[in-house]
Amino acid sequence: MSDGFKPLAMTVSRVEMDITFADIARALIRPGIFLLFGLVFLWAWNIDRKRAWLLYIAAACTTLCFAILAHFFLFQGRSAPKAIASSVLYTIAVLAACEGLLLRGGKQLGWRPMAAMLVPMTALLSYFAYPAPSLWARIYVQNFGYGALILFTSFRLAGLRHGSLPDRVLFWILLGFSVQLFLQTVLTIGFLTPEGGVAFMATPFWNSLQFSLTIFGAALAFAVLIAAVTDMMADLRGERDLDPLTGLLNRRGLEERLRYSARQLQKIPVSIIVCDLDHFKSVNDTFGHAAGDQVLKAFGGLLKSSIGQQDIAARTGGEEFSVLLEGLNEENAAEIADRIRQRLESLPLEFEAGTRLVTASFGVAQQRAGEPFSVTLKRADERLYKAKRAGRNRVVSDDRNLMSAQSQDTPVSAA
Prior knowledge:
Blueprint: H1 6-47, H2 53-77, H3 80-104, H4 111-127, H5 135-156, H6 165-186, H7 197-201, H8 204-241, H9 251-265, E1 270-277, H10 280-287, H11 289-306, E2 312-315, E3 320-326, H12 330-345, E4 348-351, E5 354-357, E6 360-366, H13 373-389, E7 395-398, E8 401-403, E9 412-414
Parallel strand pairs: 6-7
Antiparallel strand pairs: 1-3, 1-6, 2-3, 4-5, 5-9, 7-8
């Protein structure tokens, strides 16, 4: 090479080196983002290990990180094995992400269906890497295949559309991700563009594809993270608002539910039952506190099985319970209360020290127009005490009506 051309050659070499370093720097941003998401999801799973689906999302993000790295270096060496390796990693990442999302929704693909998707996808990609090498064919196979899998997942999780705000956002991002994979790929069919190398990386298709994958992938990962945090917060609220012994709402939980449903409940009849287990202290004194816990659990289960799914049952005190009945007037609520009373009365509870027939007293009140729930609860509570003063094991539904029980006392038989 003549001396006149040496400076020009050195300049071109430096430019190519600068472009290579810039490309590498840009290429490392995306895998770095997904690796970070993978570590965050792994940390979230470590906090709450019963959410196994978080492990799938963590594995998906981490695998996607390595797939992007392999895909970038593929263009440097133009190696078919690297192409297959990166494609397999992409497929595993998409499968893991879809399986994790389905598991969160109580559904799943399972290992066999996932293997049934991975094997033909790998076979097709291998065919277009060796016997009939075509970069565009591999891209079409991947984009259409992944789009179909994500679309299938979004349809299986269609119920998220009616869930919380994070669930709705997650669903629409998932659906949008699948749709854009189809549209973006279809719009490129028939265009003659380079098959590979730096020229291909400079095409509008490749740049837009990388941009959209980064945006949708990061948005989906962020939406899943928000959904996971929301799930954990909901569990914490549930633990805060639930009575651990009976599984019913506690007083705080009842008040929260009433406050949340106040506007809706104003449009329909609402009745409240307040009940108290009779002579409960004697159960603890005679049979022990474990027996008392058994009675509370049994009564809590009886309440849950006696009311509808839209109704609310709560343990509001030691042996005190409340039931909110939607769409029922006071007369209907009193009939339900008496059925509960009779079921409890006919349910002998066996303890190590003997058998006990347990009874309860009930006060019933219907919410009046414009009346706060606190006033309705107070009126039902007053009627409960009337039932107790009248001999217990009975239902008082209004100031003029006293529904008497057939039996008054609770016989005790030794074991």
